[in-house]
Amino acid sequence: MTRDEAxxxxxxxxxxxxxxxxxxxxxxxxxxxxDRFGENKRLHARAEQQMKRINEARDVLLKAAGAGSRExxxxxxxxxxxxDTSPEAILFEARARARAAETARLAVVAQLRTMRERRxxxxxxxxxxxxxxxxxLRVRGGLGAMIASIASMxxxxxxxxxxxxxxxxxxxxxxxRELLQTRDAARKIAEEAARL
Length: 196
Prior knowledge:
Shape: elongated
Structural class: mainly alpha
Low-confidence stretches: 67-81
Mean pLDDT: 83
Strand content: under 5%
Helix content: over 70%
């Protein structure tokens, strides 16, 4: 993974400080953690892949950033945040959370788009298979019966897969809405901290 790819994965701009990298990682890891999709095995597996990319991005950026000094409001190595409640620290944390929420939301929306396209494809495939079944049921002989049988199995498989994808689509839509609310709440906190 290149540095530019790592910055994109964590939703950071070039020149991000070590504290910004750690804050973005911490927030994204919380928002996209596989346990958030525990009941859905397919989404859980996708979230595990995302976590691998997030971990790799953090490692690439921290290696490039070196072991420089930490900023006052930087997250500690164990992921906890310093007890600094100054307006600057609150602003830093709120901005990091808002950026991470938007980055996570965009990742979820991309997955959602993929799932919708796949569901649409499955429904089209099921429709074509159903029409094929209907047409070949009228053909006499073993070939017609075999094609109708295979087409009916494909139609059933397409419908079942589309139904399963629908549950994933709904879970991703819900998660995208939650991340949007998180982003907006963090932005509001950042605005209030900036006024202090």
